[in-house]
């Protein structure tokens, strides 16, 4: 007899299926209350105009969709099935014919651009705050219906950003957007990387042997980029396109399929391109998720649980396992046990420095030991490579394959790559034979005279057969390598690649799940009946360019949603951290982790004085926590014209003065990090630091997530009479900032401005109570 719960679930499923076949409620109502209107806008609209229309429609709950590719793309407002369809003729709209919202004028294109390009107030994409709890358990259908247009809004926002940058009349305006780097020269061109060329570009400023730091920019690894002559514009045909491979403060390396000859000897510019593939894959994932609701598939057992219709289930008897990684602590063991016992979903909540990846690696090894085929993923290539390195180190014999474009992989994982393993396989050798034969046949074909009809026809037919044979042998090679693998490692978007389309797994493991869009996470989850997600929703969520899409919930992650929905039963929090001195940890533990974190013995009392070459007396004077107060020092914040990001030159001087004190105490420059929430302050600090501080890393807080340094100096920037603190109030950003430090953390800020916020006030109070207080005036000698 089915249980009551099962009967209820069945009834719910039936109701859901019935609803899926019915027209949406909005449409039903509109059909009943006819007439309804839909407006089809002309193809001549710019992406910016389309993005604005999407935003306004979304804000007013009007249905909206774009269809068609490239110049054929057009937007429709209103339901497709409206009783009256109005078509706006080409040329009827000019650039400033922007619709108005009910509440007033829509933002002007320049305001909109500034918000998008300017990151809220910050100068980078926005990180939305959590959506209201009411939105936490959508039905699968509601989630898909809500998210598809948000993905479209995000895509349009990125296209607008790319176009505004590359079409900017003045190159300086393009550079200010952060998407373009001007005046570069090639310092190095090296081969390798499975046939690609790596081009290392540096600033051409000064032109001589001294390499100036690159200006502040927003290019990061894996971005698609176009290389163009610097003297041309961003709309010119590129000399080459490639993928950003490595980013350093003074150089940027791009992986190209082939290096263009002309590029070597002239000043160059690099423009970031919008990545259409990612958006297409996200849309495909959502469509596949929608289909899985009725058609089933490997993930069918997960769907009810992940959309709140059923509770997570666990095996009652503990699953026996023998640790493969030595020294797992009690909370890490508990997390592994819970993951192995999960029948559908388990969450590993890993606060900073708690060994989340260590735990994930142990879970994967245990799954392999019991015969599972594992899909191991994360949002970023770097996180996946990190997993690969750790897995291979823990078990060199592990049958592991890393998929993805070789240009995006770390050199250390190339041997594990699908491409390398396919190249080494027998089927691939046979494919190579086919290619050789094709080449010979082509040469013969070219030598034939015009009249050798019969022979030409025969050779063409041979070439077709060989090409078919080559393709099928390549596919066989790929299928063989993937079929043999016990663990396949891929990025979340990589799981949607052609090669993995028909591969099913026993379990999907997602590391850094709190930094992945929910739609992206489903790419992995749809391939297995069980899933383990690891992350920390109390650190920064994924970056979303479109403010409107972020506000509508695009930045909310599945991890965060599941913590709210099933955290009590399905989540295990790692409670011992291996990074921070106890005083650094205490504030974050109290404010964000319910006082549940403890410091491992090895780090609880470690200080700078324990580092080699550090003077214990000077290090003692600096303390573990330091509050450097700019209050009353006249160190005001400033925003550059046309930019929303802020800088504070006085505070930058104080932060750099503190760095000099650390260096004087003997701390190595590479062990020091200066971080600040504002990109303009990053740029200013880099400009001001001088030669002696060149090896000190200066970065935004967002850019430093996942990293650590022995000593961290945080410049908080805000200093104004109104006490405005902007996005400093996001608890997750300050959590990330403070928890990067191992032995020393200095907070440079105006206590009068920052201290007015209750959350930040408690941060300052903690630093004052447990650390060294000084006035910035003492440091800069004012
Ligand atoms: N049980 C343990 N005993 C000793 N050291 C450990 C243990 N678990 C993890 N560590 C160490 O803690 C550090 C952080 O571990 P790991 O890289 O797994 O953490 P992470 O969760 O990926 O990092 P973060 O928490 O910052 O995201 C590493 O140096 C690791 O060796």
Automatic annotation (TrEMBL):
Domain R3H positions: 17-81
EC number(s) stated in the UniProt entry for this protein: 3.6.4.12
Gene Ontology cellular component list: chromosome; cytoplasm; nucleus
InterPro entries for this protein: AAA+_ATPase (IPR003593), Coronavir_polyprotein_1ab (IPR050534), DNA2/NAM7-like_C (IPR041679), DNA2/NAM7_AAA_11 (IPR041677), P-loop_NTPase (IPR027417), R3H_dom (IPR001374), R3H_dom_sf (IPR036867), SF1_C_Upf1 (IPR047187)
GO molecular function: 5'-3' DNA helicase activity; ATP binding; hydrolase activity; RNA binding
Localisation: Cytoplasm; Nucleus
CDD domains registered for this protein in UniProt: DEXXQc_SMUBP2, SF1_C_Upf1
PROSITE patterns in the cross-refs: R3H
Highest taxon, organism lineage: Eukaryota
SMART domains linked: AAA, R3H
Key words, A-Z: ATP-binding, Cytoplasm, Helicase, Hydrolase, Nucleotide-binding, Nucleus
Family from the record: Belongs to the DNA2/NAM7 helicase family.
Protein name: DNA helicase
Organismal lineage: Eukaryota, Viridiplantae, Chlorophyta, core chlorophytes, Trebouxiophyceae
